[in-house]
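retry 2 of 3: previous attempt timed out while embedding aspartic acid. Reduced batch size to 1 and resubmitted. Inputs unchanged:
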Amino acid sequence: MNENEALKKVVILATGGTIAGQGAAGKTTGYKGGTLSIETIVDSAPGVEKLARIEAVQVCNTVSDSLTDKDWIHLANTINEMAPDPEIAGFVITHGTDTMDETAFFLNLVVKTEKPVVITGAMRPATATSADGPLNLYQAVLTAACPESVGKGVMVVFSDRIYGGRDVQKRSTYSVTALNQVEGGLLGVIRDEDIFYYYKSTRPHTVSSRFCVDGLEKLPKVGILYFHIDTDPALVSCMAELYEGLVIAGAGAGGTSRPVADEYKKLSIPRVIASRIACGPVTQHMASMSGSIAANNLPPQKAAVLLRLALTQTTDLEELKQIFAEY
Ligand code: ASP
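retry 2 succeeded.
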C-alpha cells in the first residue's frame, strides 16, 4: 500500500460562492462568485493532499443566494447515498457564505449519517490578497477526516473555528470571521493539524432527527415578514396568499404593532414568532398570546428552515410547538 492509499477519503461537494470567486488582482470586492472549479480550489490549498484522498464533485457553481430547496434536497440525497461507503471518512461542502447558515441547519436536520459533514467557504475571492479560502478548505478537510468529528452533526468550519449547524450565523458583511454565533459554546477550534473540541449541541440532529428528504422533491413555501415601525398590516394577508407558513421577524422578544398582530392572529396557516435581533429566545408564553409558535433562539431564516421541514410532516399546532421546543 502506498502512502496515498493509506489516507482516508474525503468527498468535497462544491457549490460555488466566494471561495470559487475571481476578480481584479488583490481586490476583495467587485468579484464574480462561483466561477473557479473545485479542482482549481483544491490545488490552491497546499497540503490538503496530505490530509486525505480527495474526491471532488462539482454539484453546481453559483452564489449561495441563488440556491433553492431542490439544491438542498439534492445535496442531502447525495450525502445519504454516498455515506455508507466504508472508504469515505467524511464530507466537505464548499458554499457561499450568504446562506451557509441556512444550508448548515437544513442538512443538520436531514442528513442520515454520523460521518462528519463540514461546510466551508470564504469571505475573500481566490484572487484577493490574503484570500481566506485555502486555509478554510484545509481546515474543513482536516475536520472531515478526523475521527473525533464523528457524531457531531453538520458543522461549519471557518477561520480556525468549528461551529454547530444549528447555531452558526453569518454576522458580518465583510470580515473573515463573518461566520460566527451569538451565544453558546463553539464546538471547537483548530490550530494547524490539532483540533480541540469543547462543546456539543443538546438539540437533535442527523441520525437522531425526525426529518428526512426521502421522496421529497420540494419543500413547503414559508415566508418571512420583517417587522419595522409602520409595517403595513396588509402585508400579512398578502403573504398568507403566497405561503403555507409564516415566520414573523419581530422586534425585541418577538413584538409587532397591534395592527400587524391582529392580522396574523386571523390566519389559519401556521406562523412562528422569531426576533429580528437574532439573539436570545422568543418564549412560547409570548407566542401563545397570538396563537403562534415560538422560534426560541432560532433566527428568522433558520426558523423558516425548521418550519418548512416540520410542514412536511404536520400542520397540527401543538405538534409544531413541540418540534420548535425540541429542535
Ligand atoms: N455572495 C456570496 C455567496 O454567498 C458571498 C460569499 O460566498 O461569501 O455565494
